[in-house]
């Protein structure tokens, strides 16, 4: 499909009723989550499955962009950020939803839900780490390919309409995404420094050394993160989508916040 797309051509790629638009309803994910909960005996896992709904929009847009964008370096780079964004939303939402549901359940049934909190915490940490890895693969590829990236929720609008090229306005959300995905490195740095201080005061050499290594490695990761983000975050849509003539024609237009499409 991408071979038929030419820069500067504005058209509807496919009718929205062509069958390629796929949508997973809430009730289906809820049913799957209940089944998973019964099979694993861990409600926290079921909550994580249900929260897949919050990441599907980004994943659909990632697949669509790779299909229609005639610039594979750009689309394949942005693919990583959209996939990472989906994972970040899933595990952030599950981390918020599960404590609320667990508290409500413990009040009603008087059951001990602490073991499930540990399961939920483990799932959340693993999800955050996975989001960190995926987003930073995208960060590395963007820096290596010299691709500046501009993404926001308006991409979903063009995917839903199957219209190319995109004409993005508003705010670039990539920096927020990358900062959110860096939470594991930030936590590792804080924990490493805290443990280094505690073990240093107690003169426990080996744990203090390990803590120092963790703090040093995480600080280097954060330093590289900050330097790379400055290199790849586009300052305007033109730096990312500048090969699309429609953007150049409308660059002087002012778009109010009320006119921005929100998913």
- Low-confidence stretches are 1-5, 10-19, 247-263
Order of helices and strands, N to C? Answer: EHHHHHHEHHHHH
Strand order of the largest sheet: 1-2
> Number of helix segments?
11
The helix content, as a percent range, equals 55-70%
What does this structure look like?
The protein has 263 residues and is mainly alpha-helical. It has a domain at 2-7 and 23-172 and 236-248. 69% of the residues lie in helices and 2% in strands. The chain has helices at 26-40, 43-50, 53-68, 72-109, 114-145, 154-161, 174-181, 183-201, 205-232, 237-241, 245-249, and strands at residues 11-12, 163-164. Helix 8 packs antiparallel against helix 9 (205-232). The longest helix is centred in the middle third of the chain and has 38 residues, at 72-109. The two termini are 25 Å apart.
What are the salient characteristics of this protein?
263 residues, disordered C terminus
Task: Sum this structure up briefly.
With 263 residues, the protein is mainly α. It contains eleven helices and two strands; from the N terminus they run βααααααβααααα. Helix 3 (53-68) runs antiparallel to helix 4 (72-109) and helix 5 (114-145) packs across helix 9 (205-232).
Question: What's the helix and strand layout?
Answer:
Layout: E1 11-12, H1 26-40, H2 43-50, H3 53-68, H4 72-109, H5 114-145, H6 154-161, E2 163-164, H7 174-181, H8 183-201, H9 205-232, H10 237-241, H11 245-249
Antiparallel strand pairs: 1-2
Helix pairs in contact: 1-2, 2-4, 2-5, 3-4, 4-5, 4-7, 5-9, 8-9
